[in-house]
Amino acid sequence: MRQMRYIRRMVTSDGGTWSARHAVEAAARRTAALVNVLTAREAPSAAAVVAVLREHGEPGELDLSERDTAEMRAAALRLREVFAAPGAAEAAARLNGLLALTAGSLRLTSHRGASPWHPHLDSHDDAPWGEWLLASSALALTVLVWDRQCPPGGLCASASCGNVFLTQGAGPPRRYCSRRCATRERVAAHRRAKAAEGRQPADEMDQVPIVRR
Ligand SMILES: [Zn+2]
């Protein structure tokens, strides 16, 4: 049974006061982290999922059953499809599909005064974890598309990773989920280029090898 699920702190980690934008971005970061732990090749332990929820501010006792984590995994696989969408139109279409699946209609709650007023899409404040994950994540990603008019995120281009990541405002589109993946892929591309150079026959050495990325 879920106990409390909301961001209780009214002051953000950067010292600013609570704002809807911060809350939506925090919910989106929590969504990405949960999708990554829940859709790993091997089904995660409840403890691993609880650790991610705690990192993202869930207070109180967190008691996830096997059924809860299975339902969360099913929701995470659907959410992953939104991150895999090639453009804003496709992301919006996939989100519309998820919004149609949510059990509740849009409502405001303050969890009996324990948090700022914020919208929920699950059927009630103690809805099952899987229902909560799908509804709260779809809502946060919907607001991001509304606000930025671009896909809410993407999939890491590293074949050995495949994690989801969030679009970071303006700037060139991101390809990798983390600096770690970007560095690993850059090193691998460099090694492939070196190896290709080594294989060039002497009379072709002046030709620049084409590196496939
Ligand atoms: Zn990655």
TrEMBL record:
Residues 192-202 have a biased composition (Basic and acidic residues). Residues 155-192 form the Zinc finger CGNR domain. InterPro entries: ABATE (IPR010852), ABATE_dom_sf (IPR023286), Znf_CGNR (IPR021005). Coiled coil: none annotated. This is Zinc finger CGNR domain-containing protein. Residues 192-213 are annotated as: Disordered. It comes from Streptomyces inusitatus.
